[in-house]
Amino acid sequence: MRAAALVAGLLVAQATLACGYCVEDKIAAAYDHAVVVRAVDARHKVAFLSLEGAPHGSQARTLARAVEGIAGVDRGTVRVSLEGGAASFAFDPSRHPVNTIVDSIQKKLAAKGAQVSLLRVVGD
Description:
By secondary structure, this protein is an alpha+beta fold.
């Protein structure tokens, strides 16, 4: 009986560790350490976005190309996780404010039926 209770407890605990809905899980889904290190070295920052409503059958690369086309996004730094509902990109805050970039991404992806919201900016 104790063993069954222990196993049940471990299964519940495991399910709560990575729910996929909290900010940390979304960030982890789109995190790329090399991008963060390069951004910090260049005095840039990395923004993490929540991605909601991506059309069924969407491909991460298609959405990444759409984000890379936005002014201010560092080329080659966009990461998209459809499963995790997240995206990230590096940018130069001295040239382009993150809110302006996120607004542009929102407008571009809204045409595809997706919505984004800013989760966190790292790189200080």
